[in-house]
Design brief:
The chain is mainly β and 454 residues long. The longest helix has 10 residues. Strand 22 and strand 23 form a beta hairpin. It has 4 helices and 24 strands. It has a domain of 310 residues: Immunoglobulin-like (Sandwich), CATH 2.60.40. The protein binds copper (II) ion. The site of copper (II) ion has 6 residues, from loops. Copper (II) ion binds next to loops.
Length: 454
């Protein structure tokens, strides 16, 4: 459990003198900044209505302060540096030190006031995707409000009418600002803590970027050809595992702010979609799935009962579980490349031929990479290279994981006799199916002659 005090301590804000804090308390709440890309423990509500907080995968929740019964938050739109995985950082725009921005958590019925300070070089706004609110609070620049100019702070204030899962993002120079990483999650907990109760509640956003190997800033004019497919602006093997105890009820809320759909797939379990950004789905309207497609601008929350093991959890588009290197490689399966490689190496010493027999070798290769990029497929598992990247992580379920413990339990210790094994006996002779009996008959073609029959 992490109290607000612990949180402030962790982020180094106790350095603020008491007098400064009290002065700040009078006006805008202090803007809490997060500098780490690791998953932060849930922020337990220190005051107000009780709720079971969410855990943002490789992210964090923004602490609130309560002033005269209103829950106040301070978002700062600003340039940030985000580590996608060890070995690669991106220069992005985000909120409060990170992209995506912090998760905003509150309770159904809460009056909330969000101060938004713009420290970007251009104007912005914040749209509260899915939240039912007055038209003038909807954050569409030019339509519902003037743009927030650099250096200005705007205040949004509304009442959270219903519980559920929503998102926030700019509605100003949207293509650029979202391509630069500006987005975040909003979770409104039910007023009744027993409604839709789960033991663990994970959230993250799907986002995509185009960052050339060796460069740092996303190409903001890209519309379709993205090369980094992320869970919360993080890619495998930089993503933390999702952790649970055997038998626990787990919810994962996934919001899609990329420009394409993502079929999100979980191994070893079946789940039900229990919530969309439009609200909770009644029990009678749910069906079992192992993959749910999260379309552009949608949120899907899935729920399941955790089964012990290490289970892959990923986007089912296979090029979305790859990192930047190698997206534009020609297919070389079956092509002998040795002579060609020798010739090219005379010109480009670091040239590598890839994939005469497929690309699986890429997972094990230690090849020199350009600065600031990641291997196309990487990560080491207990049995060898995992050969993944991008939108891939592992759900780790353990019998002895403690309630509320989100630390990585290491690799699963499979019970004896439950791991696929190598067959070392004799190979049987190949038996070919006998060919279909040939019948010597004429092929008669009847040409259509009209529509007389119907
Ligand atoms: Cu995908």
């Amino acid at each position: 459990m992490n109290s607000r005090r612990d949180f402030l301590y962790k982020t180094g804000l106790t350095a603020l003198g008491a007098s400064l804090v009290s002065k700040v308390q009078a006006g805008i709440p202090e803007a809490v900044i997060q500098t780490e890309a690791a998953t932060q423990p849930p922020v337990m509500p220190s005051s107000g209505h009780p709720y079971n907080p969410v855990v943002t995968l490789n992210g964090w929740s923004l602490p609130a302060r309560i002033k005269n019964g209103v829950k106040e938050f301070h978002l700062v739109a600003e340039p940030v540096v985000r580590e996608f995985a060890p070995g690669m950082v991106a220069h992005m725009w985000g909120y409060n030190g990170q992209s995506p921005g912090p998760t905003i958590e509150c309770v159904e019925g809460d009056r909330i006031r969000i101060f938004v300070t713009n420290k970007l070089p251009e104007h912005t706004t914040v749209h509260w995707h899915g939240v039912l609110l007055p038209s003038g609070m909807d954050g569409v620049g030019g339509l519902s409000q003037p743009h927030i100019k650099p250096g200005q702070t705007y205040v949004y204030e509304f009442t959270m009418k219903k519980s559920g899962t929503f998102m926030y993002h700019p509605h100003a120079d949207e293509m650029v600002q979202m391509a630069m990483g500006m987005m975040g999650f909003i979770v409104v907990h039910p007023k009744n803590p027993d409604f839709m109760k789960v033991d663990r509640d994970y959230v993250f956003l799907l986002s995509a970027y185009d960052i050339d190997p060796g460069s740092y800033t996303p190409r903001v004019s890209e519309m379709t050809e993205f090369n980094l497919w992320t869970f919360n602006s993080r890619v495998f093997p930089g993503l933390d595992p999702l952790v649970a105890k055997t038998g626990e009820r787990v919810r994962i809320r996934v919001g899609n702010l990329t420009m394409t759909n993502h079929p999100i797939h979980l191994h070893g379990h079946d789940f039900e979609v229990t919530c969309t950004d439009g609200g909770w789905i009644p029990k009678s309207a749910r069906w079992p799935e192992v993959t749910t497609d999260v379309a552009v601008g949608q949120m899907r929350a899935v729920e399941f009962t955790a089964t012990a093991g290490d289970w892959a959890f990923h986007c089912h588009k296979s090029h979305h579980t790859m990192n930047a290197m190698g997206h534009k490689l020609p297919t070389m399966i079956g092509v002998p490349q040795r002579e060609l490689t020798e010739k090219v190496r005379k010109l480009i010493p670091e040239y590598m031929n890839m994939g005469s027999a497929g690309m699986a070798d890429m997972g094990a290769m230690e090849m020199p990479l350009p600065d600031n990029t990641l291997p196309m497929m990487s990560g080491q598992g207990p049995f060898g290279p995992v050969e993944m990247g991008g939108m891939f992580t592992v759900l780790k379920v353990r019998d002895n994981q403690k309630k509320g413990d989100y630390s990585d339990p290491g690799w699963y210790d499979n019970p004896a006799g439950t791991v696929a094994w190598l067959y070392e006996g004799e190979e049987p002779a190949t038996v070919r199916a006998s060919p279909a009996p040939s019948t010597d008959h004429d092929l008669k073609v009847r040409k259509p002659t009209g529509h007389g029959g119907h």
